[in-house]
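Project channel, design review

CF: Before we commit to the Salix suchowensis constructs, I'd like one complete example in the thread so the newer folks can see what an input/output pair looks like. Taking Pentatricopeptide repeat-containing protein.
RD: sounds good, go ahead.
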Amino acid sequence: MANQGFYPDNYTYPCVLKACSVSGDLWAGLQIHGAVVKLGLDMNLYIGNGLVSMYGKCKCLDAARRVLDEMPRRDMISWNSLVAGYAQNGRFNDALKLCREMEDLKLKPDAGTMGSLLPAVTNTSCDNVLYVKEMFMKLKEKSLISWNVMIAVYVNNAMPNEAMDLYLQMQVHGVEPDAVSISSVLPACGDLSAVVLGRQIREYVERKKLRPNLLLENALIDMYAKCGCLKEARAVFDIMIFRDVVSWTSMISAYGMSGQGKDAVALFEKMRDSGFTPDWIAFVSVLAACSHAGLVDEGRDCFNLMDEYGITPGIEHYNCMVDLLGRAGKIDEAYHLIRQMPMEPNERVWGSLLSACRVYSNMKIALLAADHLFQLAPEQSGYYVLLSNIYAKAGRWQDVETVRSIMSSRGVKKIPGNSNVEINGHVYTFLAGDQSHTQSKEIYKELDSQNRFVNTK
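CF: and here is what came back for Pentatricopeptide repeat-containing protein:
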């Protein structure tokens, strides 16, 4: 262009900066920044926005912030570009801080701002869910992306009920879910075992012809697996045109959760034979499957196989092995493995060992495990209960009373059990002894009636 006598201007540079953003070409972006400064065009709004976006995409967030601060005039695109830069680099809380800064300047975050947050919320939890919700509620016009962002925020912050309710509200408002909406809400269905809604979503996927979609299909497998619907999970897996390691791992995990360890190991081998390289998470899944099914030899083989793929076992892999050996009654071997670990064992590792000691009445190692657990997690009631049960099984009632006294003195209370019931697309959570439900009296009356019927049988 320049060779033919045409020189770039304030219309050309934003286009070229966009190209640098998409390609992640920081070197070219720096040259353009230098050129616009020499020409005095760096004060142009559209060029400034292009620079903010380019630096954000190239992970130079301090430079992006400097450009924004030096711009004599800014619009919503300027701010949203930097919000997107923070979000794309996983700095969710910085992105929210910038949104608050906008509000301090009397600028209202819009649907574009919510959309800018999307890259972060799909994988990251945030410290201020209420602020994101407040931002969402203030939007006069809620785009599909805005709904998707809010659903993802709820899911990634362990708020599955809220995610499901929002998904249903979205449809009431006439907003059609897309593949992103569905991929976001399916983990919530799995967490709540809301299989009825999960099946309705599957029907919607087929009706709207949203397949093939790797992310969506992987989410469907995971949802069915968590709901215990192994055949439906396998049906989704079998019809997939494209698969990745996540697809195979999700299906292996599904077999593991259903106690079908041999099928999990067989699928793991099939994945390897198909040319897929198992990753860190795939080994966790197959080791967990071996643990639940008591496949000690297969578990050892998989654990040793990690070295072949250049994967260093992490704390999760060791936890699976301790659990595997403990369930098989090999308490001493499990304890020996813990002592050989290259990292400090965490409470899950010691917890797995303590659980095994309860089953096999190994008092000596139980006391060692409990001592570590009370240091690592002094407020976790479950470990006190486990130790108390071990003493009770051995008939050491004085020690049972001592454990209960320690719990009382430390203010540790047993966490009540809970269960979820799905009725008409809504999931209700009930805690043991809870009377907060409006129909509690009727529910307990019916339970008493059922118990009397069972006792007479």
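RD: helpful, thanks. The first strand starts at residue 418 and ends at 423.
CF: Residues 416-457 form one domain.
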